[in-house]
Write a structure and sequence with these properties.
Layout lengths: L2 H13 L2 H8 L3 H15 L4 E4 L2 E4 L1 H27 L12 H13 L36 E7 L6 E7 L4 E7 L5
Antiparallel strand pairs: 1-2, 3-4, 4-5
């Protein structure tokens, strides 16, 4: 039994499908299925069955879920502890829709680096830049270069207005996006 197998089981159980678990893990569906198969064989239980109403945990799977979840968390904590001891920065994994990632989490993750030369592979467009000079990179948030995305969705039109604000809540840049229907 491995952490990979337990992690696959926990995600399939929580997300309800092998496809969703594979997407969350960033691996192929066969990789998740193989991990589940190996765990099933090791424990001698189906753990999860597929029925007309979707995935269902067996009694053994139900009992395993809580313990497996704790083990997966402990495994992640152990990995982070070793990385921290090696001086590596802490990691944050963000899963977001493309619009949220572009307009909200992107500015939050940008920090005080750049602007760097653009990678034009996907045709990006610079619409707003506020960055420190080249001699003032990687400043702490207390230096005032911390920005926040604010999203407002109009209930009637469905338009989403995204505003980039500084830590004093001053609007630095804003755009309104029309909904994509259909």
């Amino acid at each position: 039994m491995t952490l990979t197998q337990l992690n696959a089981f926990v995600l399939v159980a929580r997300l309800g499908s092998v496809t969703a678990a594979a997407n969350a893990l960033g691996v192929s569906e066969p990789a998740v299925s193989q991990a589940l198969t190996a765990l099933r064989q090791h424990l001698g239980d189906q753990l999860i069955t597929r029925g007309p109403a979707g995935m269902t945990l067996t009694p053994g799977g139900s009992r395993l879920l809580s313990t497996a979840s704790q083990i997966v968390v402990l495994g992640a904590e152990a990995h982070a502890a070793v990385r921290a001891a090696q001086g590596a920065p802490e990691q944050l994994r963000v899963v977001a829709t493309s619009t949220f990632a572009e307009f909200v989490s992107g500015p939050l993750q940008a920090g005080t680096f750049g602007p760097n030369p653009m990678d034009n592979t996907f045709g990006p467009e610079i619409r707003f830049v506020k960055a420190p000079g080249a001699d003032k990179q990687n400043l702490p948030p207390s230096a005032g270069m911390q920005f926040f995305g604010h999203v407002r969705i109009d209930g009637a039109s469905g338009q989403m207005t995204v505003t980039l604000r500084d830590r004093a809540d001053v609007a630095l840049w804003s755009t309104t996006l029309d909904p994509k229907l259909g």
